[in-house]
Amino acid sequence: MAVKEFKKPTLKEYSSIPKLVESATSHLAPFKSKEDFQKSLGYPGELVDNWEEVALDKMGDLLKKYRSLRVYMDSCIQCGACTDKCHYYLGTKDPNNMPVGRQNLMRGVYRKHFTLPGKYFPKLVGAVDLTKEVLDDWYSYYHQCSQCRRCAVFCPIGIDTAEISMAAREIMDSIGVGQKYCNEIIGKVHKIGNNLGLPKPALADTLEGLEEDVEEEIGVDVKFPLDVKGSDVLLVTPSADFFAEPHVDGLIGYAKVFHQAGISWTLSSHASEAANFGMFIGSYDNMKKLALRIREAALDLGVKRIVFGECGHAWRVAYSFLNTLAGPFDFLDSKYPVPQHICEVTHDLINKNVLQFDKTANDGKIITFHDSCNVARASNMGDIMGGQFSLPRDIIKATTNNFYDMDTETIMEKTFCCGGGGGLLTDDLIELRMKGAQPRMEALKRVVEDHGVTHMAAICAICKSQFSKAFQYYGFELDQIISLHQLVGDALIMNKKEL
Amino acid sequence: MSFVTIFYGISFYVATLILFIGLAYRIYEYSIIPAPLKIPTPPAPKTKKGVAIRLFREVVFFESLFSATKWTWLFGWLFHFALLLAAFRHLRYFTDPVWFWVSWEIVQAAGHYAGYMMLFGLLGLLGRRIFVDRVRYISNPSDYLMLILIISIAFTGLLMKWFHTDIYAVKMFFIGLMYFQWSELPSDFVLLLHLSLVLLLMIIFPYSKLLHAPGLFFSPTRNQTDNARDQRHIADWAKRIESKK
User: Fold this and answer.
1) Under a CB-based contact definition with an 8 Å cutoff, are residues A143 and A429 in contact?
2) Which of A170, A253, A401, B47 is deepest in the core (most CB within 10 A)?
3) Which domains does chain A have, with CATH numbers?
4) Cβ of B221 under 8 Å from any chain A Cβ?
5) Cβ count near A209 (within 10 Å)
6) For residue A77, which residues of chain B lie inside 8 Å, CB to CB?
């Protein structure tokens, strides 16, 4: 299946709501998972014979397990408030990418099989059977949702399309229709410990290389410890941080912070991945298994604190779910929240004057900040309301002289997803990714033109990878996307005397 | 006892049972389904008091809708507020002696003008459904019919300004139903039409999207506290998985 050519969207001065174009992206669907990947996660290898029955049973099961799903199936008034809120709708014009359009693909089946009016008056309420065509639409459009929850912020009832797309993916997995990208990656974490399938020797080698690079550059022996028992902090970070640009500069930044603050820390080869793709496929079981690796690593290494690196979805699972899935963490130091975000650590050290910065080191850059969707809309930092917005901005302002926010309708809780979240960061969905990035690119273009912004900082591995591609596609430079902790690392005054 | 009185009397008993039992059953269903993970959307309150304030603002001001689309907010909010005012006015048919504040001139007048406000809001919502391509695309026949039903209720209600009925007899009919001492219902056409439409609305309420009313209170993105790091939030079914391992 080759990826088709598609027309490049032009960035407009002001974003506008497009007229809808039916089936504009019905041709888009990610590659399907192969039999062995499916089986390793406990799902059927291919479409089971009585799939409709199995799918409806699964749906009935989920409706009893998740209040969100049940209430959201019933409560939509079809008011249309969400229709222009999804970046994929704005970028593709496909009405099934309007949040309510996407929800209705499942709601039709729900009404037909789980409600009286749908059973007796299907035409009246838009109830449909789960046919092969409907299943194909599900596969296509529930993989055109990045689970960013922007729609949920605007919905008068708080209906969260992410809950519905997660349930849909779980239902499809249960009948043997899985997505290759997510399920292959989850398999790798179960087996090896990270999304990339990077085994311990390779990881150790990479970290050693980083130590040499940093020493050569700044003359300070900054360590990147791996599996060091008895360390204070276990750092769990997305595996992209180990080698991808600009992620790795963020990792160097965390290491410099720990070094300068004198905090002993370690990475773990067992839990060498912060991201938890179990969430993307709506699988509580897989999500729990992946989360337990972090608990096991923390116990095994005897650490006192767990800190997460820059990773949006990872932070959602860490902040909102980890305690529930893998807790209680009563064996850790109760002085610190479990887990902590690296931004919380850095912010705290800045407040305590432990870190000193030479802001001029970042004077070549004019910065804007991209709120990653899952940090912005599904987590918090610093235990203050809105801390997930203020802490990263405080850090940027402490380390640079030039910072401008993008349009207020496109930041904080109203931020646009980068276009690659929720398990869609795969090249077989490149058309969707580029079109979905359009709203963010338009907001960026305006601060570039109005304030001469040169760089956009982010705190999510997916955002960083996605923007590396999208920036080039829309005429920016690849290296204009940077890690927040690159700014920290570059401006941090390192104490060389202690050597 | 006329046929009309017996028919409407029984119908109101049946519709009231369906409305209250249906709604109570839905609320019971929602309350026993667990929310196994913390998923509040920002700005997420840290305390239960904060949640109460958040829900109050959503219910009273439609805050999220306001930030989403001003037109839908205006029409929707006017309609719902007018519905409340109209309900206050109608309390005089169900209380004997009439509650003191219900008989206030301002409450009665507001309830009357609310009828026009309700029509305005509903026609606005219907207009959006017809003229905004995105809203038209998601509209099923039932979405139009629901609006038309409520528009018809408001319209026939207002019509009684011109097609008078014996409102004292209407009141005695409803009080009679409540205290099981039936009295005759006037068989004026507009009144019967108005009451028939209300009966229909009561019957379909627990089976329709009108469930958005209790739904909001059970919506985890809005009713949860943001305290996942401090407290485990584990559902019973998840506990069972936990103990198996």
Assistant:
1) yes
2) A253
3) 35-178 (1.10.1060), 187-491 (no CATH)
4) yes
5) 13
6) 209, 212
